[in-house]
Amino acid sequence: xxxxxxxxxxxxxxxxxxxxxxxxxxxxxxxxxxxxxxxxxxxxxxxxxxxxxxxxxxxxxxxxxxxxxxxxxxxxxxxxxxxxxxxxxxxxxxxxxxxxxxxxxxxxxxxxxxxxxxxxxxxxxxxxxxxxxxxxxxxxxxxxxxxxxxxxxxxxxxxxxxxxxxxxxxxxxxxxxxxxxxxxxxxxxx
Length: 190
What we know:
There is one protein chain. With 190 residues, the chain is mainly alpha-helical. The chain has one domain (25-182). It has 6 helices and no strands. Helix 1 (5-63) runs antiparallel to helix 2 and helix 2 (68-83) runs antiparallel to helix 3. It starts with a helix and ends in a 24-residue tail after the last helix.
């Protein structure tokens, strides 16, 4: 069986397109895995913060028993955040943003109690919480960067053809909707 020059060129083009499609597919898989890894980093930090909150609430309760509303709000939001599905990025972002605001209010309540501000356990908890908030911020940046990379591949030509063929979808950013919720709880006391 003889192949003409046209057939060989066509065959090389088809093989080239197939190889290019495989490269695009592997890039999409890599980008999707980076998003999953990044979300896992956020999830770990959110869990760490959630684990610190009961100790913080317990410490504050001893000094500010009549500030029940602030304590209950933090506890309720922590429990709500813990009960949300791990992969519901929008709901988690909303609830975690509200929790950050509630923690800010809790620290403001603590400001009125000099003995609490001097309590070593409280100081250690606020320091750990502040460090965790920083880690959450770094993890959000990493996650959103990974999401950006995936979304560019899913939405750009020609990788969008491969993405739609194999079911790759854009991922949601982890963002806080309310401008006031963007503030990191202050852990500095004078």
